[in-house]
Amino acid sequence: MGAFSEVVLAEEKKTQRLVAIKCIPKKALEGKENSIENEIAVLHKIKHPNIVSLEEIFESKSHLYLVMQLVSGGELFDRIIEKGFYTEKDASKLIQQILDAVKYLHDMGIVHRDLKPENLLYYSMDEDSKIMISDFGLSKIEGSGSVMSTACGTPGYVAPEVLAQKPYSKAVDCWSIGVIAYILLCGYPPFYDENDAKLFEQILRAEYEFDSPYWDDISDSAKDFIVHLMEKDSNERFTCEQALQHPWIAGDTALDKNIHESVSAQIKKNFAKSKWKVSQNLTELCKSIRYSLEQIFEMGKVRILRRV
């Protein structure tokens, strides 16, 4: 859904509270109504400290407006690059928050299906800010006994069973978390090829390595954690609950050694800036785009559809 919507910063006049408004042209929704209806249905069910919440919905003749909780801390990779000190423990804390949020989704029968670094945002610019999961455009609410088989997601992060077009379930999210954990510890993806067919072959065979020298200083516990999430057989793959109990998350096996130089260098090399939105200073953003909810009412003769 992000591909055809614009997000603007807004201020509620009465409270001066800042929110993010996803503005979706109704023309862009033609033929894609199911996608937006699905995102709204999913977001309405969710209340979790590590998941961006939907607060209100408005519509005009030309647009649909989703009023979202504002997260202003920027993207995951940007923050890692900016840090001067970064360790396995930092990565472990990030993954713990993601696992906790995804376990919550899974317990509600929701599968995200598109977990990737771009969809992980920091809540604020604070040093100890929590991480937030966003973008539910590809999420699926599991019906009783339902099995999903639609091939979707972002190629480098999708599980083998998705590419094989086999029926799949919430285990696909656990695979994606494994891929994210891998990148957080070395700065490059476990699977890569310019040729999509060869990339898919690597993923289908679950062929990945802990290459030297990038993984030489990473603990065996971290590698063991990743291996259990990036398990080809979805029935053998760790669930979020199992992953949360692994010593690398729940214990003290995550190392304190600074790996910032190597990881940030690899992130810069492997994830070109063009692929990641440059996080803007919130104050500058406030000056450049400062709509109020009341103005949106006046401009588009908007009516409230639902108050969450």
Automatic annotation (TrEMBL):
GO terms for molecular function: ATP binding; protein serine/threonine kinase activity. It holds the Pfam family Pkinase. SMART domains: S_TKc (SM00220). Keywords: ATP-binding, Kinase, Nucleotide-binding, Serine/threonine-protein kinase, Transferase. The keyword NADP does not apply. It comes from the Eukaryota. Residues 1-249 form the Protein kinase domain. InterPro entries: Kinase-like_dom_sf, Prot_kinase_dom, Ser/Thr_kinase_AS. Its EC number is 2.7.11.1. Signal peptide: none annotated. This is non-specific serine/threonine protein kinase. The lineage of its organism: Eukaryota, Metazoa, Chordata, Craniata, Vertebrata.
